[in-house]
Amino acid sequence: MILLPWLALLLTPVAAYLHVGPLSQTPFTLEQTHSDFQLDSNPATQPNIHTRLEITSNGSAGLYCGRPGDEFNAGYAHFTNSEGVEDKHMFWWLFKARHDPENAPLIVTFGGGPGASGLLFPFSGAGPCVVQTDKQGRGEAVPAPHSWTEYANVLAIDQPVGVGFSYGQSLRNSGATTAWDVDDLLQAFWAQVEYPHLVKNQFMISSGSYGGIFMPHVINTIHSRNHDLDEAVRVNRTIKMPESIMLANAWSDAQSHFLWFHQSNCIDNPFFNATICNDIVDALPGCLNAIQYAYEQSTPTNRYAAFEECTERVAPWEHATRNIYDYREKCPAGGCDMNLGPVEDVLNSSRIKAAVGVPHDRKFLIMAVDEITMPFVYNGDYIQPAYLLLGPAIAEGLRVLLYNGMKDGAVPWRSNLAWMRLLKSPHQSAFRNATEEEYPGVGTILKAGAGPAGEFTLVKIEEAGHMVVRTRPELLQHLMAQWLQKKPFY
User: Fold this and answer.
1) Which of 20, 194, 318, 335 has the fewest CB atoms within 10 Å, i.e. is most exposed?
2) Chain center to CA of 53
């Protein structure tokens, strides 16, 4: 059974092996739009009872690899579990806006994977520093030419606990339970003496790939807790919702992904030869049936069975001759990866650890395979229609921007278009009937809702793969700035 290429496709490559792990965690159902779970006594399946925010960086220090004057804070959110034990420690890093940080928007970003560090995105071009490979083949951090901090404060979170600099026990194995930790961190952040002024500022969340599952659960958790009828839940909350979200190449619905897999990866971008593509066609009915069964009877066993059925037979990435993250690149013998080693090397440097106040012996994991990826796999967390959880927040005004590199085989644009057309919202009819607009030099835009940028928008980027932030950083900075300001993209 070959799962490596499949695990590798969701944001980062995984040098993983398959091992036996427990099946746990409550089912996800099509009807679920609130965080109502049948919980057991395991603290990994229950909400935290307290959160303590700690700043570990040395004041508003300058960042050696950024521009003069760039400032940041970093630290941990320490979670006390249902048994009264402080056992999970989530790392955060706030890169302050270069202009008027007191009033600039706040963008919260986290990784995909599942199990990818939230620092990958800022250190790939969206933060003040970008990691490059020098002439000796070593990683080095240099000023990023198109940092999002030109326009906003950027708060990067290493979630789930276990990735990046985060660490702890009773780790999560689902997007639903991980969302509790993200919300708890944000609540502690709003209340921290250094940051209450940011509560008044515009708030956006950005993620991608498996973030297409994480994001809807985070939005649902914030929304449902803000609307909780239990006054004991709401009394100490800062009632704040993000005004908008940005999603990149988002895995949000397994059924849509596999339904369009052949069209996307045999016709649009022909990763496979004719024989393999015929085998994919033959295998699709069984895969889609298994997903439907898992959606209707959502247990860990059924979800994992669907994952196994589809990844073994419909996604034979071991036979691809092009880079699954970017069709424009031909794979050498042994396959392609995203070459993320330099990022991990740089963030494990003593210079970075000293700046953020992380102990020198704390190892940074750009991808937490054993801690997060494999438990999520065995829980079947991939097999769910997570996009449905966005519905209530969109009905109350949440704006959604999804951008997708059209050369991506890992999470192709067609599957995202499919679930965006299926999502019931005030924009559904207009989006389904919208005319695709040409975006000169970029690709196309499909949008619905008020304003020149729309409120429910898909941007297809012709010359980009899975990591748009790496290959089109100037474009992505532009999309972000125009989206925040509700201005036209061109």
Assistant:
1) 20
2) 23
